[in-house]
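Hey team,

Filing this mostly as a record. A colleague (T.K.) asked me to run one chain through the structure pipeline before their review meeting, and I want the input and output archived in the tracker in case anyone asks later how it was produced. No errors, nothing strange. Just documentation.

Input sequence:
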Amino acid sequence: MTTTTSLSSTRSRAALAPWAIVLAGLLALYLPSFVDLCKGAWGTEKNAHGPIVMAVAFAFLYYRLRQMLAQGLLERRPQPLVGSLILTFGLLCYVLGRSQSVLILEVGSMIPVLTGIVVMGFGLRTWSRMWFAFFFMLFMIPLPPSVVDTVTLPMKIAVSYVAEQLLYWAGYPVARSGVILSIGQYQLLVADACAGLNSLFTLEAMGLLYMNLVRHESAVRNAVLATLIVPISFAANTIRIVCLALITYRLGDAAGQGFLHGFSGLVLFLSALMLIVGVDSLLTWLLGPPRGDASAGPMQPAAEASAWQCLAVIDGRASVSMLVGMLLAPAMAQVLTPRFPFDGGVERLAASVPLQFGEWKAMPDATSQAELATAGDGGKSQDQLYDDVLMRTYVNRAGEQVMLAIAYARAQRQEVKLHLPEICYPAQGYKVLELTPVALPVTAGGTALPGKHMLADGNGRLEAVTYWTRISDAYPQDALAMRMKIFRDGLQGRISDGILVRSSMLVRDAGGAATAYAIQERFLRSLVNATRPRARTLVVAQQTGA
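Output structure:
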């Protein structure tokens, strides 16, 4: 008996030793990333589901491994070459993502890294039997802010509209401007976390997990239920907004923004879960009861010896090679991490932009009424997107008024970069009527800068806007071009700075926009020429392309 116990203990240690080495490598690779995520993206309301999804994914992976081990489905068909290629690809994604602050690559690299380890030890066939755990990990990756901003805005507007109609139908004094709901004396801003893509992403993950646990055999039924999760998410978000509006209206703003605001998030997911179960029950009634999945039968205990035999698939040399690769990846990421190109201070915009130049003079106590939107994801770099902001209104002798807004950010990274007006204005209740790329002849040498003309209508005003954005020495015209410029600069070892220069005028109708644009171009040309030489590079730079 003692000999048998000793033999079993020896087998267990021999089987677990290589896996302990691999685990040490994974912790060295991803523990710093998870700490940064908890301090950053995962610490915000938008992405608070991230650690929960990760925990569920690993719990499901452990459950599935035990199930396959008990059923004899954990086959030993190692494919070291294929697994090594997948693992190397994952480590390269990690290096690029970690060094360039691309979370979708840094966090997403865990999927090919774990996949490569499993394929090296067990083969593709075994991996295919636990694919859902790896697929579910996709939902823990924070989405790129540019994608979230683009998709979230129409979702927020739609949720705000439906919530307004429901409250009005119920007899409450409610009005809406864009994504701002006014109920009684209170105003509520429908934030991204309340009705955006992140909540849809989370609810889709929850619905897919429910489907996998229930394990319906019908592919059509699963596809219908997965598709219906989108309107279910919309309905759950609407319920949350209505509840928050009623809490604020009945109990006051403090109650709406306090504990009950956080509790409404629980209401969101409970509502969604009830709707998913209800829809699944309706499908059962319409299509008949689902047949059980034979492969998901009850687990039977497996022999201890065969269990250790299945786990002992990675030898010491292979595990040490993986450990070396996992330790080299963070070191390479650190080497490739870009640095600031200069250490000197930057002259403040208020000091470098004169109060009077040419025919233009700043009006006292007057600022642009259209606010510059900033990120609100937590942390200094996100709550305070811009390092310096200047907002003034200038008037000339003819009485023409131009609202000027300049926002400068010293560090442009993939997850924190300039916000484009065509995204910010609609969030404040405006509708973008026109958006046209133009060449703006604002520099002294006559070189035109790529910019845009925008006509926006909302809040009882029609506003003609002229603006440009500069990232380092380029003038990108859209979010993708901005990302690529930041990425190219990052690979060259430097952090890009960025600036948004925006002028706007109120016009009576769309016909007056052309005149307003011409006035603004004349104003911006005078502004650039009058700006102090030391700070002029904050506004314009040598153009090398977008």
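Quick notes for T.K.: Residues 2-142+303-336 form one domain. The chain has a mean pLDDT of 77.
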